[in-house]
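Two records follow; treat each independently.
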Amino acid sequence: MSRSFDALIERQMRKAQAQGQFENMSGAGKPLPENFAVRGATASVNQTMAASAGIKPRQFSIKERLDAARKELREETDADAKKKLMAKVTQLELEYNIEREAYSNFMK
Protein backbone atom coordinates (compact mmCIF):
# COMPACT_ATOMS: atom_id res chain seq x y z
CA MET A 1 0.00 0.00 0.00
CA SER A 2 1.08 3.54 -0.56
CA ARG A 3 2.38 5.65 2.27
CA SER A 4 -0.44 8.16 1.86
CA PHE A 5 -3.03 5.40 2.24
CA ASP A 6 -1.24 4.03 5.30
CA ALA A 7 -1.16 7.56 6.77
CA LEU A 8 -4.89 7.93 6.12
CA ILE A 9 -5.61 4.64 7.88
CA GLU A 10 -3.39 5.66 10.79
CA ARG A 11 -5.23 9.01 11.14
CA GLN A 12 -8.61 7.28 11.04
CA MET A 13 -7.49 4.79 13.69
CA ARG A 14 -6.22 7.57 15.97
CA LYS A 15 -9.47 9.48 15.52
CA ALA A 16 -11.55 6.39 16.31
CA GLN A 17 -9.39 5.66 19.35
CA ALA A 18 -9.80 9.23 20.61
CA GLN A 19 -13.57 8.89 20.21
CA GLY A 20 -13.53 5.65 22.21
CA GLN A 21 -14.63 3.46 19.32
CA PHE A 22 -12.11 0.77 20.22
CA GLU A 23 -13.47 0.28 23.72
CA ASN A 24 -15.40 -2.92 24.42
CA MET A 25 -14.69 -4.39 20.98
CA SER A 26 -15.30 -8.07 20.53
CA GLY A 27 -11.98 -9.87 20.49
CA ALA A 28 -10.24 -7.39 22.77
CA GLY A 29 -7.42 -9.11 24.63
CA LYS A 30 -7.60 -12.19 22.38
CA PRO A 31 -4.76 -13.35 20.13
CA LEU A 32 -4.64 -12.16 16.54
CA PRO A 33 -5.96 -14.50 13.83
CA GLU A 34 -3.50 -17.06 12.47
CA ASN A 35 -3.43 -15.46 9.02
CA PHE A 36 -2.75 -11.96 10.37
CA ALA A 37 0.84 -11.84 9.10
CA VAL A 38 -0.07 -13.41 5.75
CA ARG A 39 -2.72 -10.83 4.89
CA GLY A 40 -0.73 -7.94 6.23
CA ALA A 41 -1.19 -5.94 9.39
CA THR A 42 -2.95 -2.96 7.82
CA ALA A 43 -5.42 -5.08 5.85
CA SER A 44 -6.18 -7.29 8.85
CA VAL A 45 -6.74 -4.40 11.22
CA ASN A 46 -8.80 -2.56 8.63
CA GLN A 47 -11.00 -5.60 7.94
CA THR A 48 -11.44 -6.39 11.63
CA MET A 49 -12.39 -2.80 12.46
CA ALA A 50 -14.86 -2.65 9.59
CA ALA A 51 -16.49 -5.93 10.59
CA SER A 52 -16.74 -4.80 14.22
CA ALA A 53 -18.46 -1.61 13.10
CA GLY A 54 -20.91 -3.55 10.96
CA ILE A 55 -19.36 -2.34 7.71
CA LYS A 56 -19.24 -4.90 4.96
CA PRO A 57 -17.42 -4.83 1.64
CA ARG A 58 -19.39 -3.12 -1.14
CA GLN A 59 -19.62 -6.38 -3.08
CA PHE A 60 -21.96 -7.81 -0.43
CA SER A 61 -24.49 -4.99 -0.72
CA ILE A 62 -24.34 -5.24 -4.52
CA LYS A 63 -24.91 -9.01 -4.24
CA GLU A 64 -28.00 -8.42 -2.09
CA ARG A 65 -29.40 -6.01 -4.70
CA LEU A 66 -28.53 -8.49 -7.46
CA ASP A 67 -30.33 -11.34 -5.69
CA ALA A 68 -33.40 -9.14 -5.16
CA ALA A 69 -33.41 -8.09 -8.83
CA ARG A 70 -33.12 -11.73 -9.95
CA LYS A 71 -36.04 -12.68 -7.74
CA GLU A 72 -38.08 -9.79 -9.09
CA LEU A 73 -37.23 -10.89 -12.65
CA ARG A 74 -38.37 -14.47 -11.97
CA GLU A 75 -41.69 -13.23 -10.60
CA GLU A 76 -42.38 -10.59 -13.29
CA THR A 77 -44.94 -11.48 -15.96
CA ASP A 78 -44.99 -8.33 -18.11
CA ALA A 79 -42.62 -8.60 -21.10
CA ASP A 80 -41.58 -4.92 -21.09
CA ALA A 81 -40.92 -4.98 -17.35
CA LYS A 82 -38.88 -8.19 -17.79
CA LYS A 83 -36.68 -6.46 -20.39
CA LYS A 84 -35.94 -3.62 -17.98
CA LEU A 85 -35.23 -6.05 -15.17
CA MET A 86 -32.87 -8.07 -17.37
CA ALA A 87 -30.90 -4.89 -18.06
CA LYS A 88 -30.84 -4.13 -14.34
CA VAL A 89 -29.63 -7.67 -13.50
CA THR A 90 -26.92 -7.44 -16.17
CA GLN A 91 -25.71 -4.10 -14.80
CA LEU A 92 -25.66 -5.41 -11.23
CA GLU A 93 -23.78 -8.55 -12.32
CA LEU A 94 -21.15 -6.36 -13.96
CA GLU A 95 -20.83 -4.15 -10.86
CA TYR A 96 -20.65 -7.20 -8.60
CA ASN A 97 -17.90 -8.89 -10.63
CA ILE A 98 -15.86 -5.69 -10.88
CA GLU A 99 -16.17 -5.11 -7.14
CA ARG A 100 -15.23 -8.72 -6.32
CA GLU A 101 -12.13 -8.49 -8.47
CA ALA A 102 -11.12 -5.12 -7.01
CA TYR A 103 -11.56 -6.39 -3.46
CA SER A 104 -9.60 -9.54 -4.26
CA ASN A 105 -6.75 -7.50 -5.74
CA PHE A 106 -6.77 -5.12 -2.75
CA MET A 107 -6.49 -8.00 -0.29
CA LYS A 108 -3.44 -9.53 -2.04
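The next record belongs to a different protein.
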Amino acid sequence: MKKTLCASYDLSKPRRNYEDLIAALKSYSGWWHNLESTWFISTPKSPSEVRGELTQFIDNDDKLLVFAASAPGLARASLMMRTRGSEIISRPLISLAILTGRA
Protein backbone atom coordinates (compact mmCIF):
# COMPACT_ATOMS: atom_id res chain seq x y z
CA MET A 1 0.00 0.00 0.00
CA LYS A 2 1.40 3.38 -0.98
CA LYS A 3 1.76 6.14 1.56
CA THR A 4 2.90 9.72 1.47
CA LEU A 5 6.32 10.37 2.99
CA CYS A 6 8.05 13.67 3.54
CA ALA A 7 11.79 13.92 2.88
CA SER A 8 13.57 17.06 4.01
CA TYR A 9 17.26 17.82 4.04
CA ASP A 10 19.88 20.40 5.01
CA LEU A 11 22.81 20.28 2.64
CA SER A 12 26.05 21.61 4.04
CA LYS A 13 27.50 22.37 0.61
CA PRO A 14 24.64 24.01 -1.31
CA ARG A 15 26.81 24.66 -4.35
CA ARG A 16 27.69 20.97 -4.64
CA ASN A 17 25.96 19.02 -7.38
CA TYR A 18 23.04 17.20 -5.75
CA GLU A 19 21.43 16.19 -9.06
CA ASP A 20 21.58 12.49 -8.12
CA LEU A 21 19.63 13.19 -4.92
CA ILE A 22 17.01 15.14 -6.87
CA ALA A 23 16.79 12.38 -9.50
CA ALA A 24 16.32 9.78 -6.75
CA LEU A 25 13.47 11.77 -5.21
CA LYS A 26 11.84 12.17 -8.63
CA SER A 27 12.11 8.42 -9.24
CA TYR A 28 9.32 7.62 -6.76
CA SER A 29 5.91 6.93 -8.30
CA GLY A 30 4.59 10.30 -7.21
CA TRP A 31 6.38 13.37 -5.89
CA TRP A 32 5.79 17.03 -5.11
CA HIS A 33 8.42 19.65 -4.41
CA ASN A 34 7.25 23.12 -3.38
CA LEU A 35 9.76 24.10 -0.68
CA GLU A 36 13.49 24.37 -1.31
CA SER A 37 14.56 21.25 0.56
CA THR A 38 11.29 19.45 1.28
CA TRP A 39 9.73 16.77 -0.90
CA PHE A 40 6.57 14.70 -0.57
CA ILE A 41 6.79 11.31 -2.24
CA SER A 42 4.38 8.44 -2.79
CA THR A 43 5.80 4.98 -2.09
CA PRO A 44 4.98 1.68 -0.40
CA LYS A 45 8.39 1.88 1.36
CA SER A 46 8.95 2.83 4.99
CA PRO A 47 10.70 6.05 6.04
CA SER A 48 13.75 3.99 7.04
CA GLU A 49 13.91 2.32 3.63
CA VAL A 50 13.68 5.66 1.80
CA ARG A 51 16.28 7.18 4.12
CA GLY A 52 18.58 4.27 3.32
CA GLU A 53 18.11 4.78 -0.41
CA LEU A 54 18.76 8.53 -0.26
CA THR A 55 21.77 8.33 2.07
CA GLN A 56 24.11 7.44 -0.80
CA PHE A 57 23.44 10.84 -2.42
CA ILE A 58 24.36 13.07 0.53
CA ASP A 59 27.60 13.96 2.30
CA ASN A 60 28.64 13.05 5.85
CA ASP A 61 27.82 16.51 7.16
CA ASP A 62 24.39 16.78 5.50
CA LYS A 63 21.14 16.13 7.38
CA LEU A 64 18.16 14.10 6.17
CA LEU A 65 14.71 13.64 7.72
CA VAL A 66 12.13 11.20 6.29
CA PHE A 67 8.73 10.67 7.89
CA ALA A 68 5.29 9.37 7.04
CA ALA A 69 3.05 12.31 6.28
CA SER A 70 -0.18 10.39 6.69
CA ALA A 71 -1.99 9.15 9.79
CA PRO A 72 -5.40 9.78 11.31
CA GLY A 73 -5.76 12.94 13.35
CA LEU A 74 -2.67 14.87 12.28
CA ALA A 75 -3.55 18.49 11.55
CA ARG A 76 -1.68 20.67 9.06
CA ALA A 77 -1.76 24.27 8.00
CA SER A 78 0.03 25.74 5.02
CA LEU A 79 0.44 29.09 3.36
CA MET A 80 1.16 29.81 -0.31
CA MET A 81 1.20 26.13 -1.29
CA ARG A 82 0.18 24.95 -4.72
CA THR A 83 -3.07 22.96 -4.79
CA ARG A 84 -1.42 19.65 -5.74
CA GLY A 85 0.81 19.81 -2.69
CA SER A 86 -2.05 20.61 -0.36
CA GLU A 87 -3.85 17.52 -1.64
CA ILE A 88 -0.77 15.34 -1.16
CA ILE A 89 -0.25 16.43 2.45
CA SER A 90 -3.92 16.25 3.40
CA ARG A 91 -3.27 12.98 5.25
CA PRO A 92 -1.42 12.41 8.68
CA LEU A 93 2.01 11.18 10.78
CA ILE A 94 3.05 7.61 11.67
CA SER A 95 6.79 6.96 11.70
CA LEU A 96 10.03 8.90 11.57
CA ALA A 97 13.52 8.18 10.25
CA ILE A 98 16.26 10.72 10.94
CA LEU A 99 19.80 10.83 9.67
CA THR A 100 22.24 13.45 10.82
CA GLY A 101 25.36 12.92 8.78
CA ARG A 102 26.57 9.43 7.93
CA ALA A 103 28.94 7.16 9.80
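Discussion point: The CA atoms of residues 13 and 62 lie 8 Å apart. How would you locate this feature using only the C-alpha coordinate line?
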